[in-house]
Amino acid sequence: MAFSPSPLILLLLLSIAIQAVAAVMAIRLIGITGRRIAWCLIVAALLLMSVRRIIPLYRLLIGEQPYTPDLLNELIGVALSCAMAIGIALIAPLF
User: Fold this and answer.
1) Residue 29, class by beta-carbon neighbours within 10 Å (0-12 exposed, 13-18 middle, 19+ buried)?
2) For each successive 10 residues of the chain (95 residues), what is the average pLDDT?
3) Of 13, 38, 12, nearest in space to 95 by CA
4) How many Å separate Cα 29 from the centre of its chain?
5) I want to staple 19 with a disulfide (CB 3.0 to 4.6 A). Which of 35, 50, 53, 71 is the partner?
6) Residues 54-81: pLDDT tens digits?
7) What are the strands, taking DSSP E only, across 1-95?
8) Helix, strand, coil content of the chain in percent (nearest 5)
């Protein structure tokens, strides 16, 4: 049987990818700005958000029946990930 990714799986993968890009940008800013604690906290938050998305993705992929992530919550998560990535991208040129 062929694997057909659901929109929720694709949404989770998109969110993880955006958070990874934002984390890489924030890590680069840590080096540029002299390891400011604020950037370290942002990287930590992005990594925690990624883990929060990896867990439901894993549960969906293994087919854990009692678990069904809410599509609206995941859409909000993607929007927040985009906002963080855009914010970091807009701040980066200032340094």
Assistant:
1) buried
2) 64 85 81 75 82 82 70 81 83 73
3) 38
4) 18
5) 50
6) 888 888 888 776 666 677 877 887 888 8
7) none
8) 80, 0, 20
